[in-house]
Design goal:
By secondary structure, the chain is mostly helical. It has helices at about 1-10, 10-30, 60, 65-95, 100-125, 130-150, 155-185, 190-215, 220-245, 260-270.
């Protein structure tokens, strides 16, 4: 929103300088408060025999099917976001007949909705453990709404509100998305997994201009939003695949003494009762 406003009333060079200065300001704030960013991990992995902690191999962690699906999810979502942010304004102007301010308003509406959705998604993530359903539902709704935008021609009264809701639907998925990836990384190198999965953002950002730029060159601006809707739908599928692949990684603990069962056994022993419920001699 700030960049588009500066570009409208100034020029793109001023907007670029503002972005660069903002980066230095954020870096300075982080450096000044670097002591607050230090955290000590209490997570240890013990071998089954109770020996020394195990070191998870990098390739074994990041190339597991569940992590690869997470990587694909991040690449697809980044691909779609780049389509809206970078090529949305040009597509609205070329294919929908919008003026520059209206086109910027539509894209800004999506970004503002995304920010609001992230806040709402964080609250929702604290109140549910069905994170895969949240992520899948949000992606599906966002995909359907962007698909609607691809079929609308020249109706800003429809496009702008739809872009707001689509941004909110996508934003709601992001906190649950991170929790899903954290669950997928359980038992592996958490830092390695997050580093690998989040590199999908770079892949999506790097490849998106190749497709969307080609579509605009061939005078197919509506196809830009159709492609965005398609990638969001594929992202929803990858979330379900991640969920399905997470479940087998956590075998059933039936037959293992849980903490509660072990506590109950200790109490029975203290009362002279063996674990099978028979009085001791």
């Amino acid at each position: 929103m700030v960049v588009t406003t500066i570009t409208t009333f100034g020029n793109w060079r001023i907007a670029l300088v503002v972005c660069g200065v903002a980066g230095f300001v954020v870096a300075a704030i982080l450096f000044a408060n670097r002591s607050l960013l230090v955290c000590t991990s209490k997570r240890t992995e013990v071998s089954p025999a109770g020996g020394a902690p195990q070191q998870t191999r990098y390739l074994g962690a990041v190339l597991s099917p569940v992590i690869v699906m997470g990587f694909a999810y991040f690449a697809l979502t980044s691909f779609s976001v780049q389509g809206v942010q970078t090529f949305g304004i040009a597509s609205f102007i070329a294919g929908y007949g919008f003026t520059l301010p209206v086109a910027m308003l539509a894209v800004t509406a999506y970004l503002v909705g995304n920010a609001v959705g992230i806040v709402a998604g964080g609250v929702l993530a604290d109140r549910t453990n069905k994170h895969h359903r949240v992520a899948t539902s949000g992606m599906t709704v966002a995909s359907a709404l962007i698909l609607l935008v691809s079929g609308v021609n020249g109706f800003a009264e429809i496009v702008v509100p739809v872009m707001v809701v689509a941004g909110m639907a996508y934003g709601i998925t992001q906190p649950s998305r991170d929790i899903i990836i954290r669950q997928a990384a359980a038992g592996g190198g958490l830092g390695s997994v997050f580093g690998f999965v989040y590199s999908g953002f770079d892949l999506g950002s790097a490849t998106a201009p190749l497709l969307f730029g080609t579509l605009l060159d061939h005078h197919a601006p509506h196809a830009v939003f159709l492609s965005i809707a398609t990638t969001l739908a594929l992202a929803a599928i990858t979330v379900m695949q991640v969920r399905q692949r997470i479940t087998p990684r956590f075998p059933s603990r039936r037959g293992r003494p849980t903490r509660r069962r072990a506590r109950d056994e200790r109490r029975r022993r203290g009362k002279g009762v063996d674990p099978d419920g028979l009085k001791s001699a």
